[in-house]
Amino acid sequence: MAEYRFRYLPSGNAGYFPEIDAFLKERQVKAEFSEINGGRMYRVPVEDLSKMPGDESGPYFGTEESGWGFHADDWDHLRIEWGGSEWKGLE
Hints:
Blueprint: E1 4-9, H1 17-26, E2 32-36, E3 39-45, E4 54-55, E5 58-62, E6 67-69, H2 76-81, E7 88-89
Antiparallel strand pairs: 1-3, 2-3, 2-7, 4-5, 5-6
């Protein structure tokens, strides 16, 4: 079973979702997302983290200069508790 890193972004970040998706696709990251009340939870395979920029806190997605880091724990149980959709691949 694959190991993932997760990031939840609430609905206030929805305007960034197309940009984030393009960022991940450009780097050929096999990310998936779940829709949760207008927000999204992303999951990225650990083996793809090296395709992303990073800083002293670790890899992140957004732009080359800054972005959102990953939660250290497995957040899939929260996706389920919060009523998130099934995982979807980037289009």
